[in-house]
Amino acid sequence: MGGKTALLVVDLQEDFLPPDGSLAVANGREIIKPIIELLTSKKYKWDAVIATKDWHPSDHISFAKTHAVTPYTTKLLSSPDHSGETKLHTLWPVHCVQNTLGSEFPKEFNDVFEKLLGLQTVPTKIVLKGYLQDREYYSCFEDVWGLHKTECAQYLRDNGITDVVAVGIAYDFCVMNSCIDSAKNGFKTYVIKDLTKAVFPDKDEETTANYEKHNVTVITSTSEKLKDWQV
Ligand SMILES: [Zn+2]
């Protein structure tokens, strides 16, 4: 027998989706339907399902507005542990503020996911990230400084998960960093590339190489590998 596999849906939220998202990723809505299919088709047997949400306070440190500068400028920010360590950050438009429309799952996904959350036929959970004001998160496992861990890794371990399959937004930011941390945490990690969208699709080759460098397997929705997760 193989291991136990979790499906991880990263940041499928209105602010990352066209046409109205403040940080919309081109063609983001195209992946909603096939992701719902992964969740609802009797063909697939997941042992756990997690959907993540970027979940910021309105004055979050990653917002350009917080620093009174233009979105997409970069700024050197210091570690919240006052160690003196600094990292260059891209500052974003205000996005995914807690309890706003932009932080919500798209309705058609939410309808399905809420049902699964209620039923708990398999362990199903929302993991929030980005709620501490003073630090950026791309990964759903921890902040960019590796100081604060979310409950993601523990939840996967508690449910005996060995393998993680990721989809969502964005291929080159939150999905990538979540996958890298998933692999670091010892989970065999896969990303279904055509069920993600990138902020910078012209850099896909570079992004894919980075996944592979960090022991994450990049597959597509037509890969043979998907049969391993089918009934
Ligand atoms: Zn964010």
Automatic annotation (TrEMBL):
Keyword Metal-binding appears in the UniProt entry: yes
UniProt organism field: Pichia membranifaciens
Family, similarity comment: Belongs to the isochorismatase family.
GO molecular function, one term: metal ion binding
Pathway of action: Cofactor biosynthesis; nicotinate biosynthesis; nicotinate from nicotinamide: step 1/1
UniProt cross-references to Pfam families, sorted A to Z: Isochorismatase (PF00857)
Enzyme class (EC, first level): hydrolase
Biological processes per GO annotation: pyridine nucleotide biosynthetic process
Tagged with keyword Glycosyltransferase: no
InterPro entries from the UniProt entry: Isochorismatase-like_dom, Isochorismatase-like_sf, Isochorismatase_Nicotinamidase
Enzyme Commission code: 3.5.1.19
Entry protein name: nicotinamidase
Recorded superkingdom: Eukaryota
Keywords attached to this entry: Hydrolase, Metal-binding, Pyridine nucleotide biosynthesis
Boundaries of every Isochorismatase-like domain copy: 5-222
SUPFAM superfamilies reported in the protein's UniProt record: Isochorismatase-like hydrolases (SSF52499)
